[in-house]
Amino acid sequence: METTLVLGSQAACSDGYRGEVVAVVVDPAARTVTDVVVEPDGRRGLARLVPVGLVDAGQGQVRLRCTQAEFEGLAAAEETLAEFALGYQVPVQLLPPGWRDAGGPTVAGGTIPRIPEEETIDIVPPGEVEERRGDHVHATDGDIGQVRAVRFDAGSGQLTHVLVREGHVWAHREVAIPFDNVAGFDDGIRLSITRQQVRDLPSADIDPSAG
């Protein structure tokens, strides 16, 4: 069954814990979606890599087949590092109790005196790429729009389309570009077709309540 995953959609765990789909992780060699990046509501720096097998993308919302506790134990998709923490010679990850760390030293973020310089960074599995809503899509002869969603086979994770918001702000539309036309991932998504060929594709129907 083909699934449309709209970036920016709300996501909910089986016990009601909520977050937002902020990105999708793609294996370019296998041409598959491997994970969906979900950031908990109001918890910057704690996004998790949710394996695509745990994701059900429905009308207006993404449902995750895991509880909050299971979500907290998934691999980190981002981490917040304190550059200077008392007693440490290297940057340390600020992490609430119960959350799986990203490797390296960790401290409870709200309990230590520290200089306030900190940075949140993305964590992407080796050999894979992360695509966020708004990342640019480039035809062979120029920019054509921004990533809005992806379509993939729910069983295999195989990508079928990239859904792009194409055109000017006052005259934009969504278009589904077959993944066979994706040439690579370099500063966004690069296509093997021209802007006119993109314009010739039919408009796509994306649920307006999702993202």
How are the elements arranged and paired?
Layout: E1 2-6, E2 10-12, E3 18-27, E4 32-40, E5 48-51, E6 55-57, E7 61-64, H1 68-72, E8 78-82, E9 92-94, E10 106-107, E11 118-122, E12 129-132, E13 136-139, E14 142-153, E15 159-166, E16 173-178, E17 182-185, E18 189-191, H2 195-199
Parallel strand pairs: 2-7, 9-10, 13-18
Antiparallel strand pairs: 1-14, 2-3, 3-4, 3-12, 4-5, 6-7, 8-9, 8-11, 13-14, 14-15, 15-16, 17-18
Question: Could you describe the 3D structure shown?
Answer:
There is one protein chain. The protein starts with a strand and ends in a 12-residue tail after the last helix. It is built from 2 helices and 18 strands. The protein has helices spanning 68-72, 195-199; strands spanning 2-6, 10-12, 18-27, 32-40, 48-51, 55-57, 61-64, 78-82, 92-94, 106-107, 118-122, 129-132, 136-139, 142-153, 159-166, 173-178, 182-185, 189-191. The mean pLDDT is 88. The chain is mainly beta. It folds into 3 domains: 6-72, Photosynthetic Reaction Center, Chain H, domain 2, CATH 3.90.50.10; 78-122, no CATH class; 129-199, SH3 type barrels, CATH 2.30.30.
